[in-house]
Each structure stands twice: as C-alpha cells, then as structure tokens.
Amino acid sequence: MNLLNIVVEMVVAFVAVYFIAITLEAPKRTLRYGALGGALGWGVYLFALSFLDIVGATFLASLFIAWIAHLFARHLKTPVTIYFIPAFIALVPGAGVYQSVYSFINKEYAVAQQHLVLTLQISGAIALAIFIVDSLFGLMARIKASKEKNSPAN
C-alpha cells in the first residue's frame, strides 16, 4: 500500500469517525479531536500491516488510539470514552463476526471457527491495549498524587 492510499484512507476514517461521534452525541468541541484520533489510529493500523499480522497491527493501533484518547481527555477535561468509542469503530472486527455467523448458518463449521478465532483475537488485542494504556495512565496519576502529597508545603 502506498502513501497516497494511506492518506486517502485516513481522510475517509476521519470523516467516518467524525460522523459516528455525532451519532453518539459527543460534545461538539470534541468531534475533531475524536476524529483525528480515529484517523491517526487507522493510519497506524495500515502502516503496521506492512510488517505485522492483522492482530498485531490492531494491537499497535489500539495502543495508539487509547494513548491519544487519554491525552485528548486530559487536555480538554472530558471523559476518555468520548474519544475511545468512535475511534475504535474502524478497528472493531464486525466483518469477522458476520462471516462467522454466515459460515455457521451454512454449516461450514471449520471456516466459521477460523473467522471466530480471528475475531476474538482482534477483540482481545483491542481490549488488552485499552487495559494497558488505562493502567499506565492510572499508575502515573497515582505516582503524581503521591509525590504531591509527600512534598513539603511551601
């Protein structure tokens, strides 16, 4: 995939995430930040596909989206889920769920199992990335609070 295709897909992702955020009734002042996070996350995903499999690329993009969502939330003093939910829409394996169910209905159980395992791996990668970033930001907040509590008052 060349750079032009990645940029075009990032622009499309920006527009899609922007309108998903509107649909989810995100505050107007957060729309462009959420869309930016989703577009950049999609760019990380596309770039990572060059050297990782789909699960690894999803994990890397999810780490990035979770990290930037936390930064936006702190900068704009809003809940982090305002940025998480729309930005992750592009990475959620909806097609895999559909293909799994379709294969089960058609009694193609081996194919259905393959789709289901991959879907669960992708979903797990997203969840693990969110957990890691949330834990790191929580740990940093506790360390900062502890330092402020233990520092001598002026």
TrEMBL record:
The chain crosses the membrane at residues 6-24, 54-73, 80-98, 118-141. Residues 10-135 form the Threonine/Serine exporter ThrE domain. Keywords: Cell inner membrane, Cell membrane, Membrane, Transmembrane, Transmembrane helix. It is found in: Cell membrane. Its main location: membrane. It is a multi-pass membrane protein. It comes from the Bacteria. Coiled coil: none annotated. GO terms for biological process: succinate transport. One of its GO terms (cellular component) is plasma membrane. Belongs to the ThrE exporter (TC 2.A.79) family. This is Threonine/serine exporter. It comes from Trichococcus shcherbakoviae subsp. psychrophilus.
